[in-house]
Amino acid sequence: MDVSEFFPIWSQLTNEEQNALNKAAVTTTIPAGTILHDGIGSCRGLYLVKTGQLRAYILSDKGREVTLYRLFPWDICLFTASCMMRSIQFNIIIEVEKSCEVINIPAGTYQGIMEGSAVLANYTNQIMASRFSEVMWLVEQIMWSSFDKRLASFLINESRIDDSRSLVITHDKIANHLGTAREVVTRMLKYFQSEGLVKLTRGTIELLSIEERYPEE
Q1: How do residues 98-119 score in pLDDT, each as one tens digit?
Q2: CB 128 within 8 Å of CB 78
Q3: In the chain, count of helices (H) and strands (E)?
Q4: Apex CA 205: angle with CA 73 and CA 140, to 5°?
């Protein structure tokens, strides 16, 4: 998996542009828990995700988190190069959720190539539009969906990501993802258990029949 595989428009770039991207790219492994972008002004460049998982979230003044989206293998993380995007007016934090191997391209190099390549600029805008679509979907869920549906959707999605019906996750972690209080999560999980939708043990949530009650729309 090299740089070219992350860009479907690679063949439309000039040889000079391709060589510049390849020359600047550095592959590295980053442990879980690392903050790649603190939302204040750090600008480490683009990260192309080869393995592992990243999480993008925002933090309220009171310290409450809400997950905006995740990044998986084959995804490109743009917000770690937010210095290229002068119009961004809010802080997004990028965390390594699962230890990952990434390819880093310095922001200055990428921006320089993008300014001379309409093809790369358009593709970058497509990625940005896709991320904002995910954020808008989240806003709609928070505004219009009841919390039981949001929690059920989260659990089902986590099960698919981990390929397991037994989730090792704390109530605090779920609350951080969903932007709510731990007590709210705990009450709803206990309700789910009373309805036979999940089974709760210490640090683990086993999904039973929750998909039947909350099918995908």
Answers
A1: 999 999 999 999 999 999 999 9
A2: yes
A3: 7, 9
A4: 60
